[in-house]
Amino acid sequence: MAKDMTLLWGSGSPPCWRIMIVLEEKNLQGYNQKLLSFEKGEHKSKEVMEINPRGQLPAFKCGDVPLNESCAACFHLECKYKSQGTKLIPDCEDEKALILQRVFEVNALTEKSSIVLYYNWIVPEGERHDSAVKRNKEALTAELKLWEGYLQKASSGFIVGKNFSLADVIVYPAVAYLFQNGLSEQRYPKLAEYYKGLMNRPSIKASWPPTWKNAPKQETLKDI
After folding, report:
1. Prediction pTM value
2. Which of 8, 11, 22, 30 would bridge 211 by S-S if both were Cys, CB 3.0 to 4.6 A apart?
3. Are residues 34 and 71 in the same domain?
4. Within this chain, do residues 207 and 138 fall inside the same structural domain, yes or no?
5. At what angle do helices 93-117 and 130-154 cross, to 10 degrees?
């Protein structure tokens, strides 16, 4: 089964990491994979474009089906291999609904953190304004407080319910990315507890971004 899958990925990319976590959870090791370098522009290579015409990572194929949106790939793998490995979407409809809510809601966290992290890269120098930087940081702070509150209510070590789910698959890489970029553990203790609590889960540990191992954390978000 796994031998029919191909994943082209980049280290430290939350979307790539999500697919790798699901593949581990569903016992689908042994898939074809290749680590590419963003810095070298390898995500724009011909082999990537053949799978993902957007020239982005991940570039993932399950059989003959290209699935380059990480959430779509994760949903597909869970549905196709529902009875194999970890059950990532429960039968309980209420719990399933909340999982779907968190899965789609994490887009807001990703968008608000990205504009803070990459403001100088996204916005041309002549169009940058201190007031915009301030607004972006305030928006990210408000978003982080929402997620801090969700975890305060969850009190289980997982985003939803009492078991590791698709919500964790999607959310955890985004949270880990924030701490890798200097998010304060003191200001966001519940997010930090969640981050540390799942760090040694076998699927996460096995797929941990190699460029993060023994690398100093960035400090971009230290004042958020």
Report:
1. 0.95
2. 11
3. yes
4. yes
5. 150
